[in-house]
Amino acid sequence: MVTVLGNADINGKVNGEVAVILGCANLGPEAEINGELIVIGGRIQRYPDSKSRGQEVVIPFLPEGMTDAFEDIPRFVSDCILLARPISPNVKITLYIAGIFMVFYLLLAILFPRQLERSRKAIEERPFNAFLAGILVLACFIPFTIILLITVVGILLLPVADIALIAIAIFGKAVAFFFVGRQIARAIRTSFLEHPIFSILIGGCVVFALYMIPFFGLFLWMIMSILGLGAVCLAIGESISERKAARQAAMPTYPSGSSVAAQSSYEGSAPQETTGGPVPPGTTLSQVDPPVAAIFQRVGFWWRTLATMIDLMLVGLLIGILNIGVPLIPLFAYLILFWGWKGSTLGGMALGIRVQKISGEPMDWSTSIIRSLSSIVSFLPFFLGFFWAGWDPENQSWHDKIAGTSVVQVPKGYTWN
Fold first, then answer.
1. For residue 409, what is the enclosing H or E element?
2. Which of 121, 229, 290, 334 would bridge 172 by S-S if both were Cys, CB 3.0 to 4.6 A apart?
3. 160, 163, 161, 197: which is closest to 181 by C-alpha?
4. Are 224 and 211 in contact (CB under 8 A)?
5. Rounded to an integer, what distance in angstroms lies between the CA atom of residue 172 and that of residue 120?
6. Measured between alpha carbons, how far is 115 from 167 in angstroms, rounded to an integer?
7. Residue 134's closest CA among 203, 238, 224, 208?
8. Using CA atoms, how far apart are residues 58 and 21, in angstroms rounded to an integer?
9. Residue 6 neighbours by CB distance under 10 Å
Protein backbone atom coordinates (compact mmCIF):
# COMPACT_ATOMS: atom_id res chain seq x y z
CA MET A 1 0.00 0.00 0.00
CA VAL A 2 1.52 3.33 -1.13
CA THR A 3 0.17 6.80 -0.44
CA VAL A 4 1.81 9.88 -1.97
CA LEU A 5 0.95 13.50 -1.05
CA GLY A 6 -1.72 12.44 1.39
CA ASN A 7 -2.54 10.67 4.67
CA ALA A 8 -3.10 6.92 4.87
CA ASP A 9 -6.05 6.00 7.13
CA ILE A 10 -5.78 2.27 7.85
CA ASN A 11 -8.37 0.34 9.86
CA GLY A 12 -8.01 -3.13 8.36
CA LYS A 13 -5.48 -5.77 7.41
CA VAL A 14 -2.54 -5.11 5.05
CA ASN A 15 -0.57 -8.24 4.16
CA GLY A 16 2.38 -6.35 2.61
CA GLU A 17 4.34 -3.16 3.25
CA VAL A 18 2.89 0.30 3.77
CA ALA A 19 4.66 3.45 2.49
CA VAL A 20 3.41 6.97 3.08
CA ILE A 21 5.31 9.77 1.31
CA LEU A 22 4.68 13.38 2.39
CA GLY A 23 1.83 12.47 4.65
CA CYS A 24 0.91 10.73 7.92
CA ALA A 25 -0.08 7.14 8.68
CA ASN A 26 -3.19 6.94 10.87
CA LEU A 27 -3.72 3.43 12.28
CA GLY A 28 -7.20 2.63 13.59
CA PRO A 29 -8.09 0.12 16.33
CA GLU A 30 -8.48 -2.71 13.80
CA ALA A 31 -5.36 -1.88 11.76
CA GLU A 32 -3.03 -4.83 11.17
CA ILE A 33 0.12 -4.46 9.05
CA ASN A 34 2.17 -7.59 8.40
CA GLY A 35 5.00 -5.84 6.54
CA GLU A 36 7.19 -2.79 7.06
CA LEU A 37 5.64 0.63 7.75
CA ILE A 38 7.64 3.52 6.21
CA VAL A 39 6.58 7.15 6.60
CA ILE A 40 8.58 9.89 4.83
CA GLY A 41 7.90 13.49 5.78
CA GLY A 42 5.15 12.77 8.29
CA ARG A 43 4.45 10.74 11.43
CA ILE A 44 2.61 7.65 12.68
CA GLN A 45 -0.58 8.10 14.71
CA ARG A 46 -2.17 4.97 16.11
CA TYR A 47 -4.73 3.45 18.44
CA PRO A 48 -3.34 1.23 21.19
CA ASP A 49 -5.09 -1.81 19.65
CA SER A 50 -3.46 -1.39 16.23
CA LYS A 51 -0.83 -3.94 15.19
CA SER A 52 2.32 -3.55 13.11
CA ARG A 53 4.45 -6.70 12.92
CA GLY A 54 7.18 -5.36 10.66
CA GLN A 55 9.79 -2.66 11.13
CA GLU A 56 8.58 0.94 11.43
CA VAL A 57 10.69 3.68 9.83
CA VAL A 58 9.89 7.40 10.11
CA ILE A 59 11.98 9.91 8.10
CA PRO A 60 10.84 13.45 9.02
CA PHE A 61 11.46 16.48 6.80
CA LEU A 62 10.43 19.03 9.43
CA PRO A 63 10.95 19.39 13.19
CA GLU A 64 8.56 17.49 15.40
CA GLY A 65 6.35 20.50 16.14
CA MET A 66 5.87 21.27 12.42
CA THR A 67 4.90 17.78 11.24
CA ASP A 68 1.21 18.72 11.42
CA ALA A 69 1.74 20.83 8.28
CA PHE A 70 1.70 17.62 6.22
CA GLU A 71 -1.86 16.94 7.30
CA ASP A 72 -2.92 19.86 5.08
CA ILE A 73 -1.31 18.32 2.00
CA PRO A 74 -4.36 16.26 0.92
CA ARG A 75 -6.62 19.29 1.26
CA PHE A 76 -4.05 21.45 -0.58
CA VAL A 77 -3.95 18.96 -3.46
CA SER A 78 -7.73 18.63 -3.70
CA ASP A 79 -8.75 22.22 -2.92
CA CYS A 80 -5.89 24.20 -4.51
CA ILE A 81 -3.98 22.23 -7.13
CA LEU A 82 -6.90 20.30 -8.63
CA LEU A 83 -9.14 23.40 -8.55
CA ALA A 84 -6.37 25.67 -9.91
CA ARG A 85 -6.50 28.32 -7.20
CA PRO A 86 -3.62 29.58 -5.02
CA ILE A 87 -5.75 30.12 -1.88
CA SER A 88 -8.46 27.97 -0.34
CA PRO A 89 -10.51 28.79 2.77
CA ASN A 90 -10.26 25.10 3.73
CA VAL A 91 -6.43 25.06 3.73
CA LYS A 92 -5.09 27.08 6.64
CA ILE A 93 -1.51 27.17 5.42
CA THR A 94 -2.51 29.12 2.29
CA LEU A 95 -4.27 31.71 4.45
CA TYR A 96 -1.19 32.04 6.69
CA ILE A 97 1.09 32.50 3.68
CA ALA A 98 -1.25 35.11 2.20
CA GLY A 99 -1.21 37.00 5.50
CA ILE A 100 2.60 36.94 5.64
CA PHE A 101 2.86 38.32 2.11
CA MET A 102 0.32 41.02 2.91
CA VAL A 103 2.42 42.20 5.86
CA PHE A 104 5.48 42.22 3.61
CA TYR A 105 3.67 44.26 0.93
CA LEU A 106 2.61 46.81 3.54
CA LEU A 107 6.23 47.03 4.69
CA LEU A 108 7.26 47.77 1.10
CA ALA A 109 4.66 50.55 1.00
CA ILE A 110 6.29 52.15 4.03
CA LEU A 111 9.86 51.81 2.75
CA PHE A 112 9.45 52.49 -0.98
CA PRO A 113 6.38 54.71 -1.58
CA ARG A 114 7.91 56.62 -4.53
CA GLN A 115 9.01 53.47 -6.32
CA LEU A 116 5.56 51.96 -5.85
CA GLU A 117 3.91 55.08 -7.24
CA ARG A 118 6.17 55.13 -10.30
CA SER A 119 5.46 51.47 -11.04
CA ARG A 120 1.73 51.92 -10.47
CA LYS A 121 1.67 54.72 -13.03
CA ALA A 122 3.27 52.35 -15.53
CA ILE A 123 0.27 50.01 -15.16
CA GLU A 124 -2.22 52.86 -15.27
CA GLU A 125 -0.74 54.64 -18.29
CA ARG A 126 0.64 51.69 -20.28
CA PRO A 127 -1.02 48.45 -19.15
CA PHE A 128 -0.36 46.62 -22.43
CA ASN A 129 3.32 47.59 -22.43
CA ALA A 130 3.66 46.50 -18.81
CA PHE A 131 2.08 43.12 -19.51
CA LEU A 132 4.24 42.62 -22.61
CA ALA A 133 7.37 43.59 -20.66
CA GLY A 134 6.54 41.00 -18.00
CA ILE A 135 6.17 38.27 -20.62
CA LEU A 136 9.45 39.26 -22.28
CA VAL A 137 11.33 39.21 -18.95
CA LEU A 138 10.07 35.70 -18.17
CA ALA A 139 10.76 34.50 -21.71
CA CYS A 140 14.31 35.87 -21.73
CA PHE A 141 15.21 34.67 -18.25
CA ILE A 142 15.44 30.99 -19.28
CA PRO A 143 17.96 31.55 -22.13
CA PHE A 144 19.79 34.03 -19.92
CA THR A 145 20.14 31.33 -17.26
CA ILE A 146 21.37 28.85 -19.87
CA ILE A 147 24.01 31.33 -21.03
CA LEU A 148 25.25 31.79 -17.47
CA LEU A 149 25.47 28.04 -17.01
CA ILE A 150 27.36 27.58 -20.27
CA THR A 151 29.94 30.22 -19.39
CA VAL A 152 30.85 28.35 -16.17
CA VAL A 153 32.01 31.60 -14.53
CA GLY A 154 28.47 32.92 -14.93
CA ILE A 155 27.30 30.30 -12.44
CA LEU A 156 28.54 32.65 -9.73
CA LEU A 157 26.05 35.29 -10.90
CA LEU A 158 23.14 32.87 -11.24
CA PRO A 159 22.03 33.20 -7.57
CA VAL A 160 22.17 36.98 -7.90
CA ALA A 161 20.00 36.87 -11.02
CA ASP A 162 17.49 34.54 -9.34
CA ILE A 163 17.27 36.71 -6.23
CA ALA A 164 16.85 39.83 -8.36
CA LEU A 165 13.99 38.29 -10.37
CA ILE A 166 12.23 37.07 -7.21
CA ALA A 167 12.63 40.48 -5.55
CA ILE A 168 11.23 42.28 -8.61
CA ALA A 169 8.33 39.81 -8.83
CA ILE A 170 7.40 40.27 -5.16
CA PHE A 171 7.63 44.05 -5.49
CA GLY A 172 5.51 43.76 -8.64
CA LYS A 173 2.72 42.00 -6.75
CA ALA A 174 2.68 44.86 -4.25
CA VAL A 175 2.43 47.27 -7.19
CA ALA A 176 -0.48 45.32 -8.68
CA PHE A 177 -2.33 45.35 -5.35
CA PHE A 178 -1.60 49.07 -5.05
CA PHE A 179 -3.10 49.66 -8.50
CA VAL A 180 -6.28 47.71 -7.72
CA GLY A 181 -6.72 49.40 -4.35
CA ARG A 182 -6.15 52.87 -5.81
CA GLN A 183 -8.80 52.24 -8.48
CA ILE A 184 -11.29 51.15 -5.81
CA ALA A 185 -10.49 54.19 -3.66
CA ARG A 186 -11.06 56.50 -6.64
CA ALA A 187 -14.32 54.75 -7.51
CA ILE A 188 -15.75 55.34 -4.04
CA ARG A 189 -14.18 58.83 -3.97
CA THR A 190 -12.32 58.39 -0.69
CA SER A 191 -9.05 60.25 -0.98
CA PHE A 192 -7.35 59.02 2.20
CA LEU A 193 -7.69 55.42 0.98
CA GLU A 194 -5.44 56.31 -1.97
CA HIS A 195 -2.43 56.20 0.33
CA PRO A 196 -0.19 53.24 -0.63
CA ILE A 197 -0.73 51.42 2.66
CA PHE A 198 -4.54 51.57 2.52
CA SER A 199 -4.63 50.91 -1.22
CA ILE A 200 -2.44 47.80 -0.91
CA LEU A 201 -4.54 46.57 2.01
CA ILE A 202 -7.79 47.04 0.08
CA GLY A 203 -6.44 45.73 -3.21
CA GLY A 204 -4.81 42.74 -1.50
CA CYS A 205 -7.99 41.71 0.29
CA VAL A 206 -10.00 41.92 -2.94
CA VAL A 207 -7.43 40.01 -4.99
CA PHE A 208 -6.94 37.36 -2.31
CA ALA A 209 -10.70 36.81 -2.25
CA LEU A 210 -10.71 36.40 -6.04
CA TYR A 211 -7.82 33.95 -5.77
CA MET A 212 -10.21 31.57 -3.98
CA ILE A 213 -12.44 31.19 -7.07
CA PRO A 214 -11.71 27.80 -8.67
CA PHE A 215 -9.75 27.97 -11.96
CA PHE A 216 -10.18 31.74 -12.21
CA GLY A 217 -7.94 32.20 -9.15
CA LEU A 218 -4.83 30.74 -10.80
CA PHE A 219 -5.50 32.67 -14.01
CA LEU A 220 -5.80 35.94 -12.07
CA TRP A 221 -2.62 35.15 -10.10
CA MET A 222 -0.69 34.72 -13.36
CA ILE A 223 -2.07 37.95 -14.84
CA MET A 224 -1.28 39.97 -11.72
CA SER A 225 2.22 38.51 -11.46
CA ILE A 226 3.11 39.25 -15.09
CA LEU A 227 1.58 42.73 -14.98
CA GLY A 228 3.39 43.69 -11.77
CA LEU A 229 6.71 42.29 -12.99
CA GLY A 230 6.48 44.22 -16.25
CA ALA A 231 5.46 47.45 -14.51
CA VAL A 232 8.49 47.34 -12.20
CA CYS A 233 10.80 46.63 -15.15
CA LEU A 234 9.35 49.59 -17.07
CA ALA A 235 9.79 51.83 -14.03
CA ILE A 236 13.42 50.70 -13.64
CA GLY A 237 14.06 51.40 -17.32
CA GLU A 238 12.54 54.88 -17.05
CA SER A 239 14.59 55.64 -13.94
CA ILE A 240 17.82 54.58 -15.68
CA SER A 241 16.96 56.71 -18.73
CA GLU A 242 16.21 59.75 -16.59
CA ARG A 243 19.44 59.39 -14.64
CA LYS A 244 21.43 58.97 -17.83
CA ALA A 245 19.85 62.10 -19.32
CA ALA A 246 20.57 64.01 -16.10
CA ARG A 247 24.19 62.84 -16.16
CA GLN A 248 24.62 63.93 -19.75
CA ALA A 249 23.06 67.33 -19.01
CA ALA A 250 25.33 67.86 -16.00
CA MET A 251 28.47 66.54 -17.68
CA PRO A 252 31.22 69.12 -18.40
CA THR A 253 31.56 69.89 -22.12
CA TYR A 254 34.98 71.55 -22.07
CA PRO A 255 37.91 69.62 -23.53
CA SER A 256 40.94 68.48 -21.60
CA GLY A 257 43.73 70.97 -21.23
CA SER A 258 41.48 73.66 -19.81
CA SER A 259 43.06 73.82 -16.38
CA VAL A 260 41.05 76.84 -15.25
CA ALA A 261 37.74 75.21 -16.10
CA ALA A 262 38.81 71.92 -14.57
CA GLN A 263 39.97 73.46 -11.30
CA SER A 264 36.87 75.61 -10.84
CA SER A 265 34.53 72.70 -11.55
CA TYR A 266 36.49 70.40 -9.27
CA GLU A 267 36.08 72.85 -6.42
CA GLY A 268 32.34 72.86 -6.92
CA SER A 269 31.85 76.25 -8.59
CA ALA A 270 30.83 76.98 -12.16
CA PRO A 271 33.75 77.20 -14.60
CA GLN A 272 34.66 80.77 -15.38
CA GLU A 273 36.70 80.06 -18.45
CA THR A 274 36.80 77.32 -21.07
CA THR A 275 38.84 76.82 -24.16
CA GLY A 276 36.09 75.38 -26.26
CA GLY A 277 32.64 73.81 -26.34
CA PRO A 278 31.98 70.12 -26.77
CA VAL A 279 34.79 67.60 -26.53
CA PRO A 280 36.69 67.55 -29.85
CA PRO A 281 36.51 64.22 -31.71
CA GLY A 282 39.50 62.01 -31.01
CA THR A 283 40.22 63.32 -27.52
CA THR A 284 41.59 60.35 -25.56
CA LEU A 285 40.98 59.67 -21.91
CA SER A 286 44.72 59.78 -21.26
CA GLN A 287 44.59 63.52 -22.05
CA VAL A 288 41.95 64.24 -19.40
CA ASP A 289 43.17 66.25 -16.44
CA PRO A 290 42.61 64.30 -13.18
CA PRO A 291 40.43 67.07 -11.64
CA VAL A 292 38.14 66.84 -14.69
CA ALA A 293 37.98 63.05 -14.57
CA ALA A 294 37.27 63.17 -10.83
CA ILE A 295 33.91 64.86 -11.42
CA PHE A 296 32.69 62.36 -14.01
CA GLN A 297 29.35 60.86 -13.01
CA ARG A 298 29.62 57.75 -10.82
CA VAL A 299 28.02 54.53 -12.04
CA GLY A 300 25.65 52.54 -9.82
CA PHE A 301 25.15 48.84 -9.20
CA TRP A 302 22.99 47.73 -12.16
CA TRP A 303 25.08 49.28 -14.93
CA ARG A 304 28.21 47.75 -13.41
CA THR A 305 26.49 44.38 -13.10
CA LEU A 306 25.53 44.42 -16.78
CA ALA A 307 29.15 45.12 -17.74
CA THR A 308 30.30 42.29 -15.45
CA MET A 309 27.88 39.85 -17.07
CA ILE A 310 29.26 40.72 -20.51
CA ASP A 311 32.79 40.13 -19.23
CA LEU A 312 31.85 36.81 -17.63
CA MET A 313 30.28 35.56 -20.84
CA LEU A 314 33.38 36.52 -22.82
CA VAL A 315 35.76 34.94 -20.33
CA GLY A 316 33.53 31.85 -20.07
CA LEU A 317 33.57 31.49 -23.85
CA LEU A 318 37.36 31.73 -23.85
CA ILE A 319 37.60 29.14 -21.05
CA GLY A 320 35.35 26.78 -22.98
CA ILE A 321 37.39 27.14 -26.16
CA LEU A 322 40.74 26.65 -24.42
CA ASN A 323 39.33 23.99 -22.03
CA ILE A 324 40.88 25.61 -18.95
CA GLY A 325 40.23 23.68 -15.76
CA VAL A 326 40.63 26.55 -13.26
CA PRO A 327 38.34 29.45 -14.36
CA LEU A 328 39.40 31.95 -11.68
CA ILE A 329 42.95 32.32 -13.05
CA PRO A 330 41.94 33.55 -16.53
CA LEU A 331 39.21 35.72 -14.98
CA PHE A 332 41.66 37.58 -12.71
CA ALA A 333 44.20 37.78 -15.54
CA TYR A 334 41.54 39.33 -17.79
CA LEU A 335 40.54 41.94 -15.18
CA ILE A 336 44.09 42.89 -14.25
CA LEU A 337 45.16 43.16 -17.89
CA PHE A 338 42.31 45.37 -19.09
CA TRP A 339 42.08 47.55 -15.97
CA GLY A 340 45.80 48.23 -16.08
CA TRP A 341 45.91 48.71 -19.84
CA LYS A 342 42.64 50.47 -20.76
CA GLY A 343 41.12 51.32 -17.40
CA SER A 344 38.09 49.26 -18.38
CA THR A 345 37.14 45.78 -19.49
CA LEU A 346 35.47 44.94 -22.80
CA GLY A 347 32.08 44.95 -21.09
CA GLY A 348 32.83 48.31 -19.48
CA MET A 349 33.98 49.84 -22.77
CA ALA A 350 30.83 48.58 -24.48
CA LEU A 351 28.74 50.48 -21.92
CA GLY A 352 31.06 53.51 -21.75
CA ILE A 353 32.20 53.11 -18.14
CA ARG A 354 35.71 53.43 -16.76
CA VAL A 355 37.54 52.45 -13.57
CA GLN A 356 39.84 55.16 -12.24
CA LYS A 357 41.37 56.36 -9.01
CA ILE A 358 39.25 58.59 -6.79
CA SER A 359 41.55 61.50 -7.63
CA GLY A 360 40.68 61.06 -11.32
CA GLU A 361 44.05 59.59 -12.22
CA PRO A 362 43.99 56.55 -14.52
CA MET A 363 44.46 53.04 -13.20
CA ASP A 364 48.00 51.67 -12.89
CA TRP A 365 49.08 48.05 -12.68
CA SER A 366 49.43 47.96 -8.89
CA THR A 367 45.94 49.44 -8.36
CA SER A 368 44.54 47.00 -10.91
CA ILE A 369 46.01 44.04 -9.03
CA ILE A 370 44.77 45.29 -5.64
CA ARG A 371 41.25 45.93 -6.95
CA SER A 372 40.92 42.54 -8.65
CA LEU A 373 42.19 40.55 -5.66
CA SER A 374 40.17 42.55 -3.13
CA SER A 375 37.00 41.71 -5.09
CA ILE A 376 37.18 38.40 -3.22
CA VAL A 377 36.30 40.37 -0.07
CA SER A 378 33.18 41.68 -1.80
CA PHE A 379 32.27 38.19 -3.01
CA LEU A 380 32.58 36.14 0.18
CA PRO A 381 29.68 37.59 2.28
CA PHE A 382 27.04 36.55 -0.29
CA PHE A 383 27.97 39.31 -2.81
CA LEU A 384 27.24 42.01 -0.22
CA GLY A 385 30.37 43.95 -1.21
CA PHE A 386 29.13 44.21 -4.80
CA PHE A 387 25.62 45.29 -3.77
CA TRP A 388 27.21 48.00 -1.64
CA ALA A 389 27.75 50.11 -4.76
CA GLY A 390 23.97 50.43 -5.10
CA TRP A 391 23.37 52.38 -1.88
CA ASP A 392 26.80 53.83 -1.10
CA PRO A 393 26.79 57.67 -1.47
CA GLU A 394 29.91 57.45 -3.64
CA ASN A 395 28.71 54.34 -5.52
CA GLN A 396 31.75 52.41 -4.34
CA SER A 397 31.87 48.68 -3.74
CA TRP A 398 34.05 47.24 -1.00
CA HIS A 399 36.93 46.50 -3.37
CA ASP A 400 36.64 50.08 -4.69
CA LYS A 401 37.12 51.39 -1.17
CA ILE A 402 40.09 49.06 -0.59
CA ALA A 403 41.80 50.02 -3.85
CA GLY A 404 40.77 53.70 -3.74
CA THR A 405 38.93 53.56 -7.07
CA SER A 406 35.58 54.57 -8.53
CA VAL A 407 33.59 53.56 -11.60
CA VAL A 408 32.49 56.49 -13.77
CA GLN A 409 30.53 57.15 -16.95
CA VAL A 410 32.76 58.39 -19.77
CA PRO A 411 31.28 61.50 -21.47
CA LYS A 412 30.58 61.37 -25.17
CA GLY A 413 33.42 62.48 -27.39
CA TYR A 414 36.26 60.80 -25.54
CA THR A 415 38.06 57.78 -26.98
CA TRP A 416 39.81 55.03 -25.07
CA ASN A 417 43.54 55.40 -24.67
1. strand 405-409
2. 229
3. 197
4. no
5. 9
6. 14
7. 224
8. 10
9. 20
